Amino acid sequence: MATIQDVAKLARLSRTTVSRVINHHPYVTDEKKRLVLKAMEELNYVPNSSARRLRKQQTETIAVYVPRITNPFFSQMVEVMGNHASEKGYQLILCQTSYSRNKEINYLELLKTKQVDGLILTSIENEWREIKPYLNYGPIVLCNEYNDDADIPTVYLNQVEGAYIGTRHLIEQGHTKIAYCSGDNSASRLAFDRFKGYKQALKEAGLEFNDKWILTNAFSIKDGKRIFRAIADMEDRPTAVFTGSDEVASGIWLEATNHYWSIPDDLAIIGFDDQPQAELIGLTTIEQPIDEIAKRAMGQMIETIENKLPIKKKEIQLNFQLIKRRST
Amino acid sequence: MATIQDVAKLARLSRTTVSRVINHHPYVTDEKKRLVLKAMEELNYVPNSSARRLRKQQTETIAVYVPRITNPFFSQMVEVMGNHASEKGYQLILCQTSYSRNKEINYLELLKTKQVDGLILTSIENEWREIKPYLNYGPIVLCNEYNDDADIPTVYLNQVEGAYIGTRHLIEQGHTKIAYCSGDNSASRLAFDRFKGYKQALKEAGLEFNDKWILTNAFSIKDGKRIFRAIADMEDRPTAVFTGSDEVASGIWLEATNHYWSIPDDLAIIGFDDQPQAELIGLTTIEQPIDEIAKRAMGQMIETIENKLPIKKKEIQLNFQLIKRRST
DNA sequence: TTGTATGCGTTATCAG
DNA sequence: CTGATAACGCATACAA
């Protein structure tokens, strides 16, 4: 591999001049510039990025954390972030935490070892105090997930409102027995707020809150199936169910349909995200403006890196929209 | 940030010894090792990966190319690759080509500039001769897509067979007018072979091949909807359609259902991949062993990097399975 | 406008 | 078993 030295030698110039040409610095004669370019061409030279990283203390790489990329909500987010980063000349490293506290912490080392310029977290598994120390090593931006204690740029949606809108919709359809199902993460403000929105809507309508109708640990289609069976087995069954993701809702819908339940008559279902499959099965759902939050978060990150901005709290809040379909 | 020098000073030892401890080299007294570890701990030291990359000429990073991460087929592949890479201590850089020749070429620079140790391609947009020169800069492995001219490790499925199985299944259900729809990429051996499998099955059954029933440029749910309308508008309609992806099949299914067509009576549909939504809508499909090819490809890549194996042709072929559901 | 010298933080070589 | 020194490839302060 040709180095900058080789180019310099061939062009009969100094490394410095070559470096100036590479980095588009001023004060280089057109004549010499031509010489350098020709030599680079001839040697098929390309700057070594490891050397450049070391020298500039910059990696032009950003890590994005997601629980798992196969969740359409997150893959959509990553698609947008990846394209946006690429446009701005940044690489994107994908970190899948698999809902594991350990894995999340392990990946945080990337920032510490200077493998990336910054981190975007779309979910948080650990308590904020576990994550906070890493701010000493570089910027962190929250996207989707949020946390009061985290004084960092945050692009998010008000999940109290999201859950409220959904639950409210079910109430307006005449339901009084509404189950709630979600993932389960004590460190997640997002999860906490959704639950709050649900309870708020119930309370406002003077409806009963029933512990038995709170179903947790639901992340996937498979979990949704399990939850349907749990509901079907109840003595006192709910007539509608609010879910924290379209995947779980799809699972419930599928198993219900397989058991010849009629949706929404036997059970109304509302999802969350408006993933592609929601349209397929006619699932009512709460749409989140994924493209927008992804873009804003990545923009925020790049701006922070490039202007070496100090990390401080800056909240950008966007809005939900209810997509009404056949499942309610 | 503490450097190896700082640690050495604090421990009253040389950088060399510290480095030995970090890299678990033999020939270090337990006594000194303890001293070094203590100093590292005290300074909260962590090796700088840029420096290490430069010195070792290794990045421990692998780039994975996909057309777009939101396609469940590819996100599934990336999920598995990411986890496998992580286990082995490698990072994964995500490159979305968006079906663009230009973007694919641009990303190839990653290998040239030594930002990654190797490349895994799950699709190819350019002709192989455009890509081949980059082999001078590092290993490339093919996963899913394949190419006769590419003398590199390849993990793939025999797509002639896949399409044949699917088309054959439709024929066995009594269909004689079978449409074919796919993406469109002249550089793709995969696409070519699928089409071949389709024609082979028709020919074997002595069925008519009708140009008008060949629909191209189909990648997404949206494209599927368009294709349904195209089929509905035909004078001489096919009674079944073979598609190259579950997404396209879902689009057709959705639009057909919206137009009150009965599936499979008015139109039988067969998909490809067995994506999660296939189960939801009861789509018959050809399952590809995604986890397996992803794991094998990543394994192959890491083995090549770590043993500095020369790049040569090595084909690993896996098999399909027909998943029969209600859509046929 | 150009060149010289230095350092970014490691690890490998070699001598002791 | 340990340490001094060079080298990885580049960009920048400073001198000319």
Describe this entry's structure for a reader.
Chains A, B: One of its GO terms (molecular function) is DNA binding. 2 copies of one chain form a homodimer. The first copy, chain A, is an alpha/beta fold and 328 residues long. Chain A has 3 domains: 4-47, Orthogonal Bundle (434 Repressor (Amino-terminal Domain)), CATH 1.10.260.40; 59-157 and 290-319, 3-Layer(aba) Sandwich (Rossmann fold); 159-287, Response regulator (Rossmann fold, 3-Layer(aba) Sandwich), CATH 3.40.50.2300. Chain A has helices at 4-11, 15-22, 30-43, 49-56, 72-87, 101-112, 128-131, 159-172, 189-204, 221-232, 246-258, 276-281, 290-306, and strands spanning 61-66, 91-96, 118-121, 140-144, 153-157, 178-181, 214-215, 240-243, 268-273, 284-287, 314-318, 321-323. In chain A, the strands form 2 sheets. In chain A, strands 2-1-3-4-5-11 form a 6-stranded parallel β-sheet, with helices on both faces. In chain A, strand 3 (118-121), helix 7 (128-131) and strand 4 (140-144) form a beta-alpha-beta unit. The mean pLDDT of chain A is 95. Chains A and B meet through helix 4, helix 5, strand 2, helix 6 and helix 11 of A and helix 4, helix 5, strand 2, helix 6 and helix 11 of B. The structure holds a DNA duplex (16 and 16 nucleotides).
